[in-house]
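Trying the structure run again after the queue cleared.
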Amino acid sequence: MDYSVNLPVYEGPMDLLLDLIKENEIDIYDIPIAQISDEFLNYIERAKTINMDLTADFIIMASKLLEIKSKMMLPKKEKEVISEDEEDPRDELVQKILEYQKFKEIGSFFENRALIENRSIIKEPMDFDDLPELEFFIDFEIDKLSKTFNLLLKKAKIREATEKVVIESDKFSISDAMKDLSLKLKENNNMSFYKWIGSDYSVEKLVTYFLAVLELIKNGEILVRQGNLFEDIEIRSRLG
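Done. Tokens:
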């Protein structure tokens, strides 16, 4: 009798890692590398068994996990010597997972918004000058917003690769960024997204601030408007 084995298909190794962390209810800041690496390798072995094509990225990630695992398994004395000069071997991986998680959230927003737009009845372009003030600030196309974000992201990555980027001591969480924007909108009901993030933004800052805007849109606290592709994103408070 033939048995069919069904394995979930992941977009990439980070997608698989994130799923394993959620499935096992693991604290992302204290990942049990031995457990996660074993489960990650088990997935790869099962994928090979059913001839599932995996990209080289999965193999590279598996090697990275084994490298971290070997460092974590060093004898205590050796580990203490390393800890004086090095950070926790998991730190870089944790940061990458957190960054990937943020990108997933942004991707999910764009995907859901696109589905809503595709279901909408196509209408003639509206004359926003004749609309009430609040309605004026709901004018944005998800495709434009997505492309604008990707352009800003590309610029940030190029800048980080070619320049010495100063690491900000005060790292904002998404909730911090939401509070910051809300406070600025209390002072001035209009806000430019480009002005808010500044000209020397990092990838982390861009992603965090962008997610803050998306959260405030979903919460019904702000309205946004973008004119042509790559133009600034205007933000306005709905709370007065």
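The CA atoms of residues 29 and 94 lie 6 Å apart. Worth checking whether this holds up in the mutant runs.
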